[in-house]
Each structure stands twice: as C-alpha cells, then as structure tokens.
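>> received
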Amino acid sequence: MKLLQTFVVAGLLTGTACQQIPPKTENVSVETGSLAGTDDPAGEGNPAESQIEPAVLSLKEQLSLTEQQTQELDKIFKETRTKREVITIKLRDISKKRQEGMNAILTQEQREKYEKIRWEVPAHPGKPQRSEP
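>> returned
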C-alpha cells in the first residue's frame, strides 16, 4: 500500500509541476518571417529545450540547473514517466476488475448504498473527507 501511495504522490507532484508550463502547440503553420505562435519573439530559441520534459524545464529555472543536470534529470523523468504510465494503466485495470466483481455480488440497492458511503468515509484515517465527483 505504501508503494501505491508513493506512486500516487509522485504522479501528483509531477503533474503539478507540469501544469505550470503551457502546453506545446504542434503542427502550427507560420508564415515565413512571422512570429505568430512562438514564445520567443527574438527567434533565438533553443530547439533542444523544446524536447525537455516540462517539469524539468520548471526545475531548471527554479533550481538554476546546469545543462548537464538538466539533461540527466530529463532522462530520468522520461524513463520514470513511461513506467508511471504503465503502472497507472494497471491500477485502472485493477480498480475496474474490483468494481466489476463487486457489482456481480452486490444487489442494485447495495451498490447504490456503497456509492453513497464511499464518498462519506475519509480515504485514510486523519485525512479530510472526499467531496463527491
């Protein structure tokens, strides 16, 4: 259970860091000489930086990382992102199978009651109650 919590927290932290950086625009056609659609009005951007993970770019700025540190962290973030995505898919599959199993056992009335109490009970002792989705 601790491992699952660690992955969830790591995913949330990484996701939060990524939210600070605007999404990339892809397949944007720009007329020659036009600066539309660019974040670099001088036209002097570093194309290598556009390949770096957004969370790493944020850390680079906040922590004043060297280029070597940036590249090493980027490699780590890319490797772990892929692993996190695989784990997330597996967790969704496990949750789906659990729900299907419960639905096969519980009556309609019990399922409705379960859904109601599911949102009333705190996820973990000492944590605030969840609000309905």
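>> DSSP finds four helices and no strands in the chain.
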